[in-house]
Sequence to fold (347 residues):
Amino acid sequence: MAGSPALAQVTASRLRVAVGIVPPFVMQQEAGQPTGFGIDLWNAVASKLKTSTSYQMFPDVASVVDAIKSKLVDVVAAPVVITAERDEWMDFSLPIVQAGWQVMVRDTGQTAAPNPLADLVDLLFSKTTALWLGIALILVLIPAHLVWLFERRRVDGILGNRRYYPGIFEAVYWALSCLTAQAEAMPQQWIARSFSVFWMFAGVVFVAFYTAQLTTTLTVRQIRGAISGPDDLPGKQVATLANSPAADYLKAKKAQVLECQNLDQMYRALLRKKVDAVVFSAPALLYYAAHEGKGLVKTVGPEFNVGPIGFVVQLNSPLRRRINGALLALREDGTYQQIYNKWFGAQ
Fold:
């Protein structure tokens, strides 16, 4: 059918191509023109198709995906991971590269000798210590009031005053002494004295448990870094792109996910210590760590969840077949390998 939109799209002399900044796949030059592995490869494909390109820049990958879904563009040249869910409402070309995710953290010079004093101070002001102090407060106030209740009528008792104030402060000091060490004096009332024996035993158990917790936590911190790979992400604050497969993965791993709208926001969150790590496409993180983030960040652990990345076209678009043919031709004549080596190095 000569008038069909699909046929018009295939024979169009100028294609609308959406891109978003994701180095080294897509970057923006000072003149405003995009560059990168994805741009070079698409330009080669467009040359095979004998068509020109009208690049449309979008702020993030999510906007790029929405543009193809809404049929505002013909092709997406930004890196989009091929997933079964996305394949239901848009079409992918043959894979242009295989890439996985990687973990990036701040580079704090961990190769230097550890600082036990800094680790101890950090641990003493941690959430764990705050929790134990809260428990200790409860364990002090309850027995303090019990001793004051029983001992307040004893003239020769340890309170020295029958009124609630300041008698309760003496009782609190006694309860705290029993909890942490050994009380200087014992109550005179027999019920309070019997309770004191039990309370001193409870204090020994409390201190033993707290000491064991601190020792275990400090030992683990010295043996391994806070984050050395994907297995350390559960419970950590991790940034990634919003509405991405990586975000779903991190939520399944029980990480505290900060979903960012673009890469700059993601990197700033890490550098400003709003998150403990970043998880994103390995090539993009490696490029940032070697350029803008050099000396500030580093990648840790292996590349994981490796999958294919491809160009995107509208669902059921005839362009898909032509783009695939061009990609096969570029691989056969060596052009693809030349472009790959330019951006990722020779294998």
About this structure: The longest helix spans residues 190-223. The longest strand covers residues 297-313.
